Amino acid sequence: MATRAEVHQKNIQNIFYPESIAIVGTNKVKGTVPFDIVNNILKAEFNGVVFPVSPGERYIAGVKAYKYVTDIPDEVDLAILVFPSSVCHLALEQCGQKGIKSVIVISAGFKEVGGVGVEREKRIKQIAEKYDMSFIGPNCLGVINPDPKVRLNASFARRMPEDGSIGFLSQSGALCTAVLDYAYSRHIGFSKFVSFGNKADISEIDLLYYLRDDPRTKVILLYLEEVSDGKGLLEAAENVIRESGKPILVLKAGRTSKGAAAAASHTGSLAGSDEICDAGFEQAGMIRCDNLEEMFNKAIAFAYQPVPKSNRMAIITNAGGPGVLTTDAAIEGGLELADFSEETTKVLKKSLPKTANIKNPVDVIGDARADRYNVALSAAFKDDNVDSVCVILTPQSMTEIDLIAREVAKVSSHYDKPVFASFMGEADVAEGVDVLQRNRIPHYLLPESMARSLATVYQFKEYLKKKKKEVPALSDVDKEAAEKVLSEAKKEGRNYLPEAEAVKILQAYKLPVLKSKVAKNEEEAAQYAQEIGYPVVMKIMSDDVVHKSDIGGVVLNIENDQEAKDAYNSIMKKVKDHNPDAKIDGILVTQMVTSGEEVILGAKQDPSFKGVVMFGLGGIFVEVFKDVTFKVAPLSEDDAEKMLSEIRGSQILYGVRGQAPRDIAALKDAIVRLSKLVDDFPEIKELDINPMLVQEEGKGCYVADARILI
Predict the structure, then answer these.
(1) Residue 147: CB partners within 8 Å, gap ≥ 6?
(2) What is the largest CA-CA distance in the chain?
């Protein structure tokens, strides 16, 4: 039996390429969604048959209408539902009876309004599953496919966009209308344009897999307001990127998270959903954008021009300042200014004024006309040391703006090298910008945006060269031992595991734990300290004490039996003073490591991405400095190494100011093992190892303190 994902892939084709469409629930009232969808389909000159369905109407927009979808005598490939949400289930049931497999539910009034809307959405999903139907929506703008083969505008957008190679997927319908207007003014075309709304059935994941195999799509844009299946999204995105080489640019709304501070542990209080989105998107190879302008700046870079063979670029400008700004942005993005060949230098020296700068960036001077730009452009493109060209223009009184734009288009058309342009300004450069855009030359208002967009294309090319990161199998872990500890805690109704139990779970996954025993009185404390070997650490074990050091629940550097007894009694007294009703399970006596760099390892379960791992510099001030980074589990060794390099204080671990490097290999292994643990056990809600003490290179690292919430 086919899975829902397989059913969707079969049915999505008819959403984009139907030969017949039924608009179910339309009317004759101009300016309403039901009528405008019929009108848009007809205006776009849809290459197929249209069947309006409208009880009580004989014709809609000059086309014969039917009372019910089951009355249509012919086969129907796609149904578009515009009935009120209260009766959508009835219409969808009839579509199922008619044998229609592909549906767009435009209607609002479902999950987004809560209450009865949630139940309505469940009902239409059940009907779709019953008939092996697939639907986009509800609560969406619709679907547009500008492909000349079909010319489908199944939406209530104001206009049909130009044909192009950018696939756009959006959770917001209102945003789509603004995007279409923005794109129209800049001659940006689309291969597919989808508003998927509540994604009750077909999700962005299904659409990503479809666009992976769509020959007309070169780059995919994705706007999300919430990530409902983070694991599935990351898996799909990495698959699409690796299999097709198509970049996925993502704009995720909601960068703030007030709820994170309420979590009980260090990890919970630091891991806001946005940091996790950042981490997950980066792991999957997705390119996150901060705003729509950045998204489209980068989209046209991928869609319009060939990929540069290297990071060596040339800058042609008629103003020194913008050239410097472009250089800075390019270098920051990993690009390099190409060293011109002797031949190029000779040509530039001979043909440009003496006041011109013939080194890279080339400054053709403010009074440059089209002929000067032609010389500089031609020389740069011919140079084998140059693999991309950026052109900057500031409008002077003598600047031939439109002619220069034509020269850029003409010269670049002879070479398989990308060209990017920044004609700075607005009104004065408008004609030249229009020439560039019509010739599919990426144009940017700011030269820094131009350089960053080119750098993104180059960085993505380098990413594709790297092999997919393999997650180690870790065949030496004892999953059953960890499961036993967790099961016993769950049976007893406990959600906080004392350190002794946390250590058993970490030990089962071969994380480097220290020798420890639980003492119930001062005599046991001294006896166990002797057995473990001085010096030792003693810590309170109590569900009612989360941050032990804050109330004197930890004593370090215990050197003999008497100190062990005194420490036991001191801890017990301070805990009782702090909370007389605290339930105490004993005092943990632990081997003490007297040196090592303190780091924190943490893990939590995210509602969408599931297991998430945190790493950073540790100790009591971890929440003050917040020098931490996140990754979605499970992790490869490369992921772990990246985490080490991402924190601001990473140099401390690699050796600084005469200090020896720490044991990076042991630390990476610990991170990978922790990621495996949290991936294997989704019931682990939060886990803190703070601190983990990292020794000098070759001497390992040790868990000094740990706690787990389930």
Answers:
(1) 16, 17, 163, 191, 216
(2) 99
> Nearest-CA neighbor of 514 among 488, 539, 487, 482?
539
**Residue recorded with tokens 């599935």:** 232
**Secondary structure of 349-402 as H, E, C letters:** HHHCCCCCECCCCEECCCCCCHHHHHHHHHHHHHCCCCCEEEEEECCCCCCCHH
pLDDT given for residue 270 in this prediction: 52
Per-residue pLDDT reduced to its tens digit, 96-145: 999 999 999 999 999 999 999 999 999 999 999 999 999 999 999 999 99
Strands 597-606 and 610-617, by their bridges, are antiparallel
Written as six digits, the tokens of 556 are 């370090």
Instruction: Provide the 10 A C-beta neighbour count for residue 153.
Output: 25
Which residue is listed with tokens 């060596």? 312
Residues in the chain: 710
Strand partners, 631: 613
List, in order, residues 6 or more apart from 265 with CB less than 8 Å away.
546, 602, 604, 686, 687, 688, 707, 709
478: number of Cβ within 10 Å? 13
Q: Which two tokens stand for residue 560?
A: 């003999």
pLDDT tens by residue, 538-589: 999 887 887 788 888 999 999 999 999 999 999 999 999 988 888 888 999 9
Chain position carrying tokens 């941050």: 547
| DSSP output for 622-673 | HHHH--EEEEESS--HHHHHHHHHHSTTHHHHH--TTPPPB-HHHHHHHHHH
Amino acid identity at 404: I
User: Rounded CA gap, 630 and 647, in Å?
Assistant: 10
- The DSSP result for 416-453, as a single string, is SS-EEEEE-SSSTTHHHHHHHHHTT--B-SSHHHHHHH
The closest of 632, 311, 326 to 452, measured between CA atoms, is 326
Any residues with CB less than 8 A from the CB of 144 and at least 6 apart, and which? 152, 153, 154, 155, 157, 160, 161, 190, 192, 193, 194
Beta bridge partners of 20: 49
Strands 706-709 and 701-703: unpaired
pLDDT at 259: 35
Query: Long-range pairs for 436-440 at CB < 8 Å and ≥24 separation?
Result: 436/405, 436/408, 436/409, 437/186, 437/187, 437/188, 438/187, 439/409, 440/303, 440/304, 440/305
Token duo for residue 297: 């700046």
Stretches in the chain below the pLDDT threshold 70: 256-272, 620-621
Question: What pLDDT shows up at residue 621?
Answer: 65
d(CA 611, CA 599): 20
Name every residue whose Cβ is closer than 8 Å to that of residue 656 and which is 6 or more positions away in sequence.
none
Query: Pairing between strand 388-393 and 312-317?
Result: parallel
Instruction: Write down all domains in the chain, each with its CATH number in brackets.
Output: 4-217 (3.40.50.720), 305-465 (3.40.50.261)
Tell me if 433 sits within 8 A of 406, measured CB to CB. no
Indicate whether this model's pTM tops 0.85: yes
Cα–Cα distance measured from residue 591 to residue 569, given in angstroms and rounded to the nearest whole number = 19
Tell which phi-psi region holds residue 183, choosing left (phi > 0), alpha (psi between -120 and 50) or beta.
alpha
Opening angle at CA 374, ends 372 and 376, nearest 5: 70
- CA-nearest of 647, 312, 581, 342 to 458 is 312
DSSP 531-595: HH-SSEEEEEE-TT-SSGGGGT-EEEEE-SHHHHHHHHHHHHHHHHHH-TT----EEEEEE----
**Which among 470, 468, 488 is positioned nearest to 480, based on CA atoms?**
488
Structure tokens at 372: 């000067």
